[in-house]
Amino acid sequence: MSTFSAAGGTADRATHADPHSGSRPRIHPSLDEGTRWTVLVLLLTAPVWGLILLSIWQSPFPISEAVALFEDAAKQPVSHFVVPETSYYRPLYHLLLLGIWHGAPALDLKLALVKLTHMLPVLVLVVAFVRHLRPRTALDAGLAVVAVAVLLGSPGLRDNLELPLTYTAVGMPCALLVWRLLESERRPWTSPAILALTVVAVGFKEQGLVIVPVVILAAFMRAPGASRSLAAITFVATIAYLATRLAFRAKWPLFEQSMGLGFGTIEPAEAVRRFGSFPLPMYAYNALATMANVLAAEPIGGTFVTTRDLLRGRPLPWELVHAVSSLGLTAIIAWWGTGELRRTWREGWTPERRAVVFLVFAVAACGALSFNYSRDRLGGMAVPFYAGAGFLALRWFASWAIGASGRAWVASAATCLLLAGGWELRALGTLETVRITSERNAREWLMDLPKRRAEFATRPVYRDILESMVPQGTRAGSPRMLRIPSRLQRVILPRP
Amino acid sequence: MTTRPGSLTESYARERWLTRLLLVPAVAAVVLIATLGVVGRLFPRASLFVVAPEMPFEQAVRTDKDETVFEALRAGTDPNRPIETDDPRLTGGRPLRVRPVTLAVAAGSEHVLQVLLGHGVVLDAAGSARLQCLALRTGRPDLLPVLALVGGEVARDGCAPATGRPVLEGAEAD
Question: What value of ipTM does the predicted structure carry?
Answer without folding.
Answer: 0.86
